[in-house]
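Contributing new records

If you add data, match the layout below exactly. Sequence lines come first and carry their own label; structure lines follow with theirs. Keep one chain per record. Anything else will be rejected by the validation script.
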Amino acid sequence: MKQEEPELAEVHYFFLDKMVEDITFKKWDTMVITWKCGLKSRIHIDYKRACDFPNSKEQLGTLVSKRWVEKAEEAAKAKEAEQADE
């Protein structure tokens, strides 16, 4: 495939599925791609805004909000189930 397309202008799911074994983040600013051919690529990630940094206050606030909503929904479902049993 690399011989057919030495450089890709866009990344499509088809190419990822066909060529990539695994994508991991060793550090918050380094992505490691393990290719199905056995090679590994390490890519440095440059963040343009402070809120894009992993674990920034804004992101943590969003996560807390999501967790709160999920817990509230679970509690509501449990309450409905209790009422249905009565």
